[in-house]
């Protein structure tokens, strides 16, 4: 079989492959493909342990083809996969090849991953796919090449069947991020269990249990790898579900109930938010008294002018959600499919027959009258799980982001976070956003004292770690001290926030009495330490002169800007205050210099 390659002076391996015989070329491809697939597999190691985030895996292999080190991104705001792999490889990194399932990129302007590879002496980098987000796509690749490192991107520098299969694994593992970049809705999976005759419950509504225990365990794993699980009002009324992951540890997704009428029971398992939060989305004005009852239980209620799956998913996209699991009934499933927000279907088929003309099916009326109108799944997989058959496939193909590659000498960048109609506003929220370094979850450790009046400085993994811990500092209770230590040693900002927020709700006696009075000052001191410690962050902050900074959380009405600008945006305010102080210092310094 003839192979063609794009030859460039910056790609010596491509030249070698072109000049060598076909067998050697295939060997290069087979080796590269195997290590890229391993990097993709590694990147999923944190699934179910933390809130979903971009999946990064890195494998470092020596010239003899042996693995020297591996690493994967544990959570948003933690050490990059590349840095972990370099640490594991040690001196064997020098002259080795690094295999990445996706181009590095977390915080824009943060070069930790690239620096780790450069300083370790990596000679070549093979990348499965470029970063899906436009403001990060191509940036790390250009930087690596500027340091003289050979970089090959699958599907661009060379092609073959084995490499295309490896590249596909990279697309699959980051399907949520790719869909987020292209469609501006979270990646949604419709899951259901049905009998062999296509029923999800008996005609009475009874549905426990259709599938086997092994299948239910797989469902718990699916939940643990999702940001949220969504059901309709009828599921709450009929089944009274808990919708927990039930794996005893790690990430538990938010529960979402979608109901137009808000006709829900006053007592339900989902109203217990001691362990995990519940959000009810409904039509504006529906049952205001019941909304107040839910709010009193700690359940968040979000109203929509027109309640439909598309608007709801666009809202949760704004909240930063990447992946949502739909475990709803047939009516809501049909509405979601019709709204084109379902990307993948996972169906457990049990070898049972229950019959019944009125027994519900997994998907309601889609308005189709001929079999030719049926929706076909793509990339269908079949797997036996105990006595059940698991059938899965995509309703929508994963977008291919090969086009739109920034040129090597591009000097003008378009800021996708700036609304063209409001050019003076810059939004930030998740660490992967253009201004993600402004997030409290960004991976920038700070050295701050333990408490307000303590000179004992210690390192906090992020601003979020420090802020959450300070809720309990100084309280004369051993459990408060234990809580501070749990937060300080939490592996990720996400986990630190979870400990702090849940303890605040469940054990208010451990919270310092003056917390509401001092929390803004605590946040400000942490931000000042962060931006003073990292010069590139200070430069990024000063580059926003003349703009309004808004933390784009649609649900945090204190620190964020809110869904419709109704939030107080204190995080944005503090950053603008800090920016003004830096500008004032620069002015004073300039005046002293000119008068000297």
UniProtKB/TrEMBL annotation:
Gene Ontology molecular function: 5-amino-6-(5-phosphoribosylamino)uracil reductase activity; diaminohydroxyphosphoribosylaminopyrimidine deaminase activity; hydrolase activity, hydrolyzing N-glycosyl compounds; NADP binding
Gene3D superfamilies: Cytidine Deaminase, domain 2, Dihydrofolate Reductase, subunit A, YbiA-like
Compartments, as annotated in UniProt: Plastid, Chloroplast
Domain CMP/dCMP-type deaminase: 30-152
Catalytic reaction annotation: 2,5-diamino-6-hydroxy-4-(5-phosphoribosylamino)-pyrimidine + H2O = 2,5,6-triamino-4-hydroxypyrimidine + D-ribose 5-phosphate; 5-amino-6-(5-phospho-D-ribitylamino)uracil + NADP(+) = 5-amino-6-(5-phospho-D-ribosylamino)uracil + NADPH + H(+); 5-amino-6-(5-phospho-D-ribosylamino)uracil + H2O = 5,6-diaminouracil + D-ribose 5-phosphate
GO cellular component terms given for this protein: chloroplast
Pathway the protein acts in: Cofactor biosynthesis; riboflavin biosynthesis; 5-amino-6-(D-ribitylamino)uracil from GTP: step 3/4
Chain ranges passing through the membrane: none
Highest taxon of the lineage: Eukaryota
The enzyme's E.C. designation: 1.1.1.193
Coiled coil regions in record: none
Gene Ontology biological process terms, A to Z: carbohydrate derivative metabolic process; riboflavin biosynthetic process
Keywords recorded for this protein, A-Z: Chloroplast, Glycosidase, Hydrolase, Multifunctional enzyme, NADP, Oxidoreductase, Plastid, Transit peptide
Family: In the C-terminal section; belongs to the YbiA family.
Name the record gives this protein: Riboflavin biosynthesis protein PYRR, chloroplastic
Organism the protein comes from: Arabidopsis thaliana (Mouse-ear cress)
Gene behind the chain: PHS1
């Amino acid at each position: 079989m003839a192979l063609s390659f794009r030859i460039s002076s910056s790609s010596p391996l491509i030249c070698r492959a072109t000049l060598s015989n076909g067998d050697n070329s295939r060997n290069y491809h087979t080796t590269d493909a195997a290590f890229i697939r391993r990097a993709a597999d590694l990147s999923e190691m944190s699934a179910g342990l933390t809130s979903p985030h971009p999946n990064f895996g890195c494998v470092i292999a020596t010239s003899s083809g042996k693995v020297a080190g591996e690493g994967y991104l544990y959570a948003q705001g933690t050490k990059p996969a590349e840095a972990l792999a370099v640490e594991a490889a040690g001196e064997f990194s020098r002259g080795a090849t690094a295999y990445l399932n996706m181009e590095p990129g977390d915080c824009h302007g943060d070069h930790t991953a690239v620096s780790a590879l450069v300083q370790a002496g990596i000679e070549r980098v093979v990348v499965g796919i470029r970063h899906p987000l436009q403001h990060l796509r191509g940036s790390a690749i250009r930087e690596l090449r500027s340091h003289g490192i050979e970089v090959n991107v699958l599907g661009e520098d060379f092609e073959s069947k084995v490499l295309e299969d490896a590249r596909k694994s990279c697309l699959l593992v980051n399907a949520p991020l790719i869909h987020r970049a292209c469609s501006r809705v979270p990646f949604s999976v419709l899951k259901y269990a049905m009998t062999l005759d296509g029923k999800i419950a008996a005609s009475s509504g009874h549905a426990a249990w259709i599938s086997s225990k092994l299948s239910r365990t797989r469902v718990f794993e699916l939940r643990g790898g999702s940001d949220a699980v969504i059901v309709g009002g009828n599921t709450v009324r009929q089944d009274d579900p808990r919708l927990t992951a039930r794996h005893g540890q790690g990430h538990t997704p938010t529960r979402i109930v979608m109901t137009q009428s808000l006709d829900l029971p006053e007592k339900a398992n989902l109203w217990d938010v001691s362990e995990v939060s519940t959000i009810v989305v409904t039509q504006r004005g529906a049952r205001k008294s019941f909304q107040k009852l839910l709010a009193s239980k700690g359940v968040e209620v979000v109203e929509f002018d027109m309640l439909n799956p598309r608007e709801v998913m666009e809202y949760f996209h704004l909240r930063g959600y990447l992946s949502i699991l739909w475990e709803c009934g047939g009516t809501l499933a049909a509405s979601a499919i019709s709204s084109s927000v379902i990307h993948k279907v996972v169906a457990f088929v049990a070898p049972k027959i229950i019959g019944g003309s009125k027994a519900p099916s997994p998907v309601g009326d889609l308005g189709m009258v001929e079999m030719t109108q049926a929706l076909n799944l793509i990339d269908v997989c079949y797997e036996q799980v105990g006595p059940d058959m698991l059938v899965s496939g995509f309703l929508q193909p994963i977008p291919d982001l090969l086009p739109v590659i920034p040129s090597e000498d591009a000097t003008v960048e378009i800021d996708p976070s700036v609304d063209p109609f409001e050019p003076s506003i810059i939004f930030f929220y998740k660490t992967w956003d253009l201004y993600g370094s402004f997030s409290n979850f960004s991976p920038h450790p700070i050295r701050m004292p333990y408490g307000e009046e303590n000179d004992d400085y210690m390192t906090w993994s992020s601003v979020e770690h420090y802020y959450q811990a300070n809720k309990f500092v100084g309280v004369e209770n051993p459990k408060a001290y234990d809580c501070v230590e749990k937060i300080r040693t939490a592996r990720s900002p996400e986990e630190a926030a979870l400990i702090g927020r849940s303890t605040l709700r469940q054990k208010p006696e451990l919270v310092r009495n003056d917390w509401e009075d001092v929390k803004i000052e605590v946040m400000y001191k942490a931000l000042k330490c962060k931006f003073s410690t990292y010069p590139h962050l200070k430069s990024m902050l000063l580059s926003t002169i003349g703009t309004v900074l808004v933390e784009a959380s649609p649900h945090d009405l204190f620190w964020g800007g809110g869904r419709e600008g109704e939030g107080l945006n204190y995080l944005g305010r503090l950053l603008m205050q800090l920016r003004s102080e830096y500008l004032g210092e620069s002015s004073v310094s300039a005046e002293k210099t000119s008068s000297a």
